[in-house]
Amino acid sequence: MEQQLTVNVVTPNGIVYDHHATMVVAKTISGELGILPRHAPIIAPLMIDEVKVRRVDSDTHVDWIAVNGGILEMRDNLVSIVADSAERERDIDVTRAERAKMRAERLIEEAKQREDIDEVRRATVALHRAMNRINVSKHQ
Question: Which of 33, 35, 100, 111 has the most crowded Cβ, counting Cβ within 10 A?
Fold first, then answer.
């Protein structure tokens, strides 16, 4: 009876994360999803949010990953996350994320003044991504 998960996070740039875990928690469009070993197979679309991975070596060893949407698949104790972009907490450039946040906030205000709904939506997504990266970086 296998009591661990293998967790892979993959982006177009390659593998971002590949470790063994006892638990994974991710936010799907339907709500928060916790996955333990032997979880039933599932495929779920992810929100822009953090993914929490409790490692097998210690209950206190938790990795955090900023995932910008994507798909999570659980099958045969393998959790695969495919995302456009993802970063581990230790790899996040906080200064760059802060600049992206400020740029997105400025773009939102400018787009609102022009009443450009599409640009407001795009800038809002960029803001959520920047805020997610900033929040995950605080777990270090």
Answer: 35
Quote the CA–CA distance of 5 and 27 in Å, as a whole number. 18
Non-local (6+) Cβ contacts of 101 within 8 A are: 127, 130, 131, 134
Tell whether pTM > 0.85.
yes
Across 50-68, average pLDDT: 92
- ∠ CA 28-47-64 to the nearest 5 degrees? 90
Domains of the chain: 5-89 (2.60.15.10), 93-137 (1.20.5)
Task: Please give the average per-residue pLDDT across 44-63, as a whole number.
Answer: 92
Beta carbons of 135 and 129 less than 8 angstroms apart: no
| Residues in Cβ contact with 24 at an 8 Å cutoff, skipping those fewer than 6 apart | 5, 7, 34, 35, 51, 52, 53, 54, 79
Which one, of 101, 22, 85, lies nearest residue 54 by Cα?
Answer: 22
